[in-house]
Structure formats: C-alpha cells, structure tokens
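Incident log, entry 3
Record: PTS sorbose transporter subunit IIB (166 residues)
Problem: checksum mismatch between cached and fresh output.
Input:
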Amino acid sequence: MIKMLRIDERLIHGQVAVVWSKVLKISHILVANDAVMNNETQQMTMKMAVPDNIKFICRNIKDSLSILSDPRASKLEMFVVVQNFKDAREIAEKLEDQIDLINVGNYGLLPVNQHDKSQKKIAAAVQVDEDDLIDIKAIAKLKPEFKAQLTPDAQDKNFKKIYGGD
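Fresh output:
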C-alpha cells in the first residue's frame, strides 16, 4: 500500500524523512527518480536523513513501478517520493488503486523544475508551467486524494477539486 506519493523537488529532507514518515507511520521510503540512480553521493545523503526504523529504497521510475506492482509491496506501508509531476503521473496512472494520497510539497522553486519562465504560483511553495498543469489535471482525474500540503500541520489545498477531480 502506498500511503502517500509525494511530489517534492528536494526529494528526501527533514519534512519528508522525519515529519511525514512519522505521521504516516510508514515502514519504507521509496525514492523514484532516474537521475538519482546515477548519483551515489545524493543517494547516500538521502539515506542518512531517513530514520533507522524505516527502510530506504532508491530506484529509477521503471524499477520503482516493478517493485510497487509486486503483490508483496501491498503488505508494506510505503511512502513514495518523486521529483516532478511527470513521474508522479506515470506512477499514479499505473497504480492508482494502491495510492491513498498524492501530495505536493515543494515544486518549481529550484532550477531542476524551472522549465518555463511563465511559471505561476498555484500553492505555497508550488510554481508550475503549462506542461506541469497538463500532468496535474491528469492526476486530478485519478482516484487518490490529491492536494498540496507542505507539512502535516499546514493548511492543504485540494488539487483534485481545483483541477478536474471530484
């Protein structure tokens, strides 16, 4: 079971590793990102941030889908973190019945997700361009809840309601 799929361009950091994992009561964090698979330093840094009682896994998108599709994964309490809406959409479209919540944290503030100068702010710490909005609208039509929320105690913004869901 994927308790939460989070879109966060910083991937693993304090909010994700400590705060969200504690609230979600997860047993595993899976970072699904193609670029990180080629960066051992970044993988080691993220692993050090994850609490000892949580298993850290880092895979590319293809291998992440394979792991998450395995029936044994349905018995785990998984927290999946991706860096962008495109990757989130790919995972969510293939596994929407396994995902409780899709959450957006930080996006469009770092160069990694600044593709277009016409980005607009759609939530606290979330700036997107037109390509991102296409992915957001597709995600909003899927079954899981879909909202922006930086931390569990912060106010959320319901993306499903705003961008075409229910």
